[in-house]
Design brief:
By secondary structure, the chain is an alpha+beta fold. The protein has 3 domains: 15-107, Orthogonal Bundle (Arc Repressor Mutant, subunit A); 148-196, no CATH class; 200-268, no CATH class. Helices cover 57% and strands 13% of the residues. The strands form 3 sheets. It has a 3-stranded antiparallel beta sheet. Strand 4 and strand 5 form a beta hairpin. Helix 8 (121-162) packs across helix 12. Residues 1-13 have low confidence and may be disordered.
Length: 284
């Protein structure tokens, strides 16, 4: 898709005129409207607030190209901007941009999610459209992330295939830097510090019982994070989950032909480091 295709532009003026439900419905298409726009979105997610020059240097795209795409993203309220007055004394301060979190935090979409079956059909359809578009954009983002990781794997494997002691040392160093945990020297203090750059994948098939159990664990975690949670009640619920966990594990391991219903995918990776490594002209 190009910057001028697919997602409709959302014209906004004052805060009172903003239709957050419409913004959320179009969110998936707006993020993935172009490859450059998607990369800008990823950069701001990974690196935080940045100006046009910084984004341009990371992307190896011209400032005019980055500015044009950022303008469209501001118009669609994917990002917000401000003038960085503290940056450059005596010079025109640059604008800095960051992800706009209002899209997902405002509007009535959350209320629809909580009370879906009782909502008018039109609201249900709008919610479904928003969910599908969001999931499509997530799939595109995941695909892009996987494409960042594969060249790293290829580089490590090529170094191993060279077969020399030097190439094997380089392979180990790169593996530890991007896919494992270890120690490195702090540039300022000279002391050794532990770091964890583990790249870890997990995909498993689960029964309905295991899926329900995972949801209960998630809910219990949220209770634990609340300031007013009851410790005695929490411990009682935890003990029940321990018993339930044993039953779930026994069910899944006792018979290989137990029917599975859900797929669960999880990945951890030092994405910012890997992203920078895949940039054009990046230092190896």
């Amino acid at each position: 898709m190009t910057e001028n295709e697919a997602a409709p532009k959302t014209q906004v003026n004052s805060e009172d005129e903003i239709d957050y439900d419409k913004l959320r419905t179009n969110w998936g298409l707006n993020v993935t409207k172009s490859t450059v726009r998607l990369k800008i979105w990823q950069i701001l997610q990974l690196f935080g607030e940045m100006n046009v020059t910084q984004i341009s240097n990371l992307l190896k795209e011209s400032k005019s190209t980055v500015s044009r795409h950022l303008g469209g993203m501001v118009e669609d309220r994917l990002v917000s901007s401000r003038v960085d007055e503290s940056c450059c004394e005596g010079r025109i301060p640059p604008k800095v941009f960051k992800i706009n979190t209002d899209i997902m935090s405002k509007g009535s979409m959350g209320e629809i999610e909580d009370n879906f079956d009782n909502e008018p059909l039109e609201d249900q359809i709008n919610f479904i459209k928003a969910e599908i578009q969001t999931n499509r954009s997530s799939i595109e983002m995941i695909t892009g992330i996987m494409n960042l990781l594969l060249p790293v794997y290829n580089e490590v494997e090529e170094l191993i295939k060279e077969g020399t002691e030097e190439s094997h040392k380089k392979a180990v160093k790169l593996f530890k830097k991007l896919m494992w945990k270890g120690q490195r020297k702090n540039k300022d203090t000279g002391e050794l510090e532990k770091y964890d750059h583990t790249t870890w994948f997990m995909f498993k098939y689960s029964t309905s019982e295991a899926h329900k159990f995972s949801k209960k664990i998630e809910m219990l975690t949220w209770k634990l994070l609340k300031e007013d949670f009851n410790l005695e009640e929490f411990e009682s619920e935890r003990q029940k989950l321990i018993t339930e966990h044993k039953k779930v594990k026994e069910l899944e391991h006792s018979a290989p032909d137990v029917r599975k219903k859900y797929g669960h995918f999880c990945i951890d990776m030092p994405l910012r480091t890997i992203f920078k490594r895949n940039l054009p002209d990046s230092k190896k």
